[in-house]
Specification:
- A hairpin with a 2-residue loop joins strand 9 and strand 10.
- Strands 5, 6, 7, 8, 9 and 10 form a 6-stranded mixed β-sheet that branches.
- With 283 residues, the chain is an alpha/beta fold.
- The protein has 2 domains: 138 residues, Frizzled cysteine-rich domain (Orthogonal Bundle); 124 residues, no CATH class.
- It is found in: Secreted.
């Protein structure tokens, strides 16, 4: 049922538009991208300019301000979100600043602003797309149509109201939801910076796969849990691992989870349904 796009790493040479770059008129220096900025690791370069394009003058300020965006990057709300934010917080160390193109900003904003809204935030004025150069200038451009064509277009999770966690009743009902279910073992750990991180273990034996692959399914669940963090927090009230069945559907490329069931291993009806699963035919 569920699938996701992997985070893409873009090389700078493949995204630059030829033209005239412009600088912000500050004396800058090259510094190594700090380990705390994990969202800007493995992006094609290891050194950044300081001050950066957000006007941050110290590394402590860069780390503090960028940390608030790492959660958004992990949602994969747009293929360019990582490169867009890193070009601003950790710009590549060249002779001049390379800004993201306005079209890249618009694409990231339109895809990621709904995720911010889901968490109670608006797209900030500091990232107003009108401040960035047009595509004919030297800037980080969007992917070409040819590149997009070569990559699979995958459904995306949506911000939604969290379904109530239900208990499974009869074994017949269990078999019905198995036909459209992902089994998830969900646990929680505390990150170094203080945010919550979620460890996801997915068992895909109960999924009607179709063209969707297990590793893509796992990443898709991670996206849904990050976007719908209010639901994830409800499901991880303790640090003890808990198993759930997530039941959902795909409509117009959007993935929605419409039911969540608590998997209780000792439940007799669940045990019976598991025994009957190999003989069950989904409609």
């Amino acid at each position: 049922m569920l699938l996701t796009a992997k985070i893409l790493v873009f090389t700078l040479s493949g995204l630059l538009r030829v033209g005239t770059g412009f600088d912000i008129g500050l004396s800058t220096k090259c510094v190594v991208i700090p380990k705390e900025m994990d969202m800007c690791h493995e992006i094609g370069y290891s050194e950044m300019r300081l001050p950066n394009l957000m006007g941050h003058t110290s590394m402590a300020e860069v780390v503090l301000k960028s940390t608030t965006w790492q959660h958004l990057v992990h949602t994969d709300c747009h293929p360019h979100v990582r490169m867009f934010l890193c070009s601003l917080f950790a710009p590549i160390c060249l002779d001049t600043f390379i800004h993201p193109c306005r079209s890249m900003c618009v694409g990231v904003r339109d895809s990621c602003a709904p995720v911010l809204a889901c968490h109670g935030h608006t797209w900030p004025e500091s990232l107003d797309c009108n401040r960035f150069p047009a595509d004919e200038d030297m800037c980080l451009a969007s992917l070409t149509k040819e590149y997009k064509y070569l990559h699979k277009v995958l459904p995306k999770p949506a911000c939604q109201t969290c379904p109530a966690v239900e208990e499974l009743f009869t074994h017949k009902r269990v078999l019905e939801v198995f036909c459209d279910t992902v089994k998830v073992k969900l646990s929680k750990k505390r990150a170094v910076i203080g945010d919550q991180e979620y460890n996801i273990e997915c068992h895909v034996e109960f999924i009607i796969q179709g063209s969707l692959l297990p590793f893509e399914t796992q990443h898709m669940i991670q996206q849904w849990l990050l976007i719908n963090e209010n639901c994830t927090q409800r499901m991880t009230q303790t640090h003890r691992p808990t198993v759930y069945l997530l039941v959902g559907k795909i409509e117009e490329g959007i993935i929605l989870v419409n039911q969540i069931y608590h998997w209780q291993r000792k439940d007799s009806q669940l045990t019976l349904a598991t025994q009957k699963w190999r003989y069950h035919k989904c409609l």
